[in-house]
Amino acid sequence: MDIYGGHVNKLIEELSRLPGIGGKSAQRLAFHIINMPEDRAKSLSEAIINAKTNIKFCKNCYTITDREICPICSSEKRDHKVIMVVESPRDMAAYERCGQYKGVYHVLHGVINPAMGIGANEIKLKELILRLEQQDIEEVIIATNSSVEGEATAMYISKLIKPSGIITSRIASGVPVGGDLECIDEVTLLRALDGRITI
Ligand code: ZN
Q1: Phi, psi torsion values for 171, nearest 5 degrees
Q2: What distance in Å separates the CA atoms of residue 115 and residue 94, rounded to the nearest whole number?
């Protein structure tokens, strides 16, 4: 039975598509939004549209940014000869919160996952290889998550880079198996970075 009417149902349906939001949470959020003052609701919807339309990928490292080149890639204080390869901008943010890593990043936007139909061409891997050809890089630290796909992607990347003679390392264990980088505390992340091993 259609209790709420089309507009409310549509809002509940859209909210329930968000990760971690089930049907009940979607209803709760929908009613919270409906009860908001109109200007707050407008400001929320504008924030969503603005984030979607104004944010682009950094032309160098492919993190999300509102500039052509992100603040880290344009900083003179960073070591541009060391690249840390991460799965997502959120992983990059986790390392940045530690404040210890001084190199730059490359954001893959995923990992190779044949079961999900994600091959090497679906992530920003060609872009990484191009960077290695065009820029003076001494070390690539592969910091994909320690999931099966993250490990397989790390091996794939290290094989691709090997012929170039660039040092390739992998963040050390300490990051639990199946661990999502974003959820691991900063001390563990740092230990993983310090204990990286050449592969
Ligand atoms: Zn960048």
Answers
A1: -60, 140
A2: 27
Cα(30) to centroid(ligand 1), Å: 36
**How much distance in Å is there from the Cα of 68 to the middle of ligand 1?**
8
The tens digit of pLDDT for each residue in 78-94 reads 999 999 999 999 889 88
- Tell me how far the alpha carbon of residue 138 lies from the centroid of ligand 1, in angstroms: 18
Distance 190 CA to ligand 1 centre (A): 21
User: With contact defined as beta carbons under 8 Å apart, do 63 and 92 qualify?
Assistant: yes
- Kind and range of the H or E run holding 153: helix 148-161
Ordered structural domains, the chain, with CATH: 6-54 (1.10.8.420), 64-198 (3.40.1360.10)
Residue 147 above 50 pLDDT? Answer: yes
125, 155 in Cβ contact below 8 A? no
Model pTM?
Answer: 0.73
158 CA from centroid of ligand 1 (Å)? 21
Give 125 Cα–ligand 1 centroid separation in angstroms: 15
Residue in 128, 75, 131, 67 with CA at minimum distance from that of residue 103: 75
Q: Where are the beta strands (DSSP E) in the chain?
A: 56-57, 64-65, 79-86, 103-107, 139-142, 167-170, 197-198
Query: How many whole angstroms separate alpha carbon 45 and alpha carbon 36?
Result: 12
| Ligand 1: centre distance to CA 79 (Å) | 13
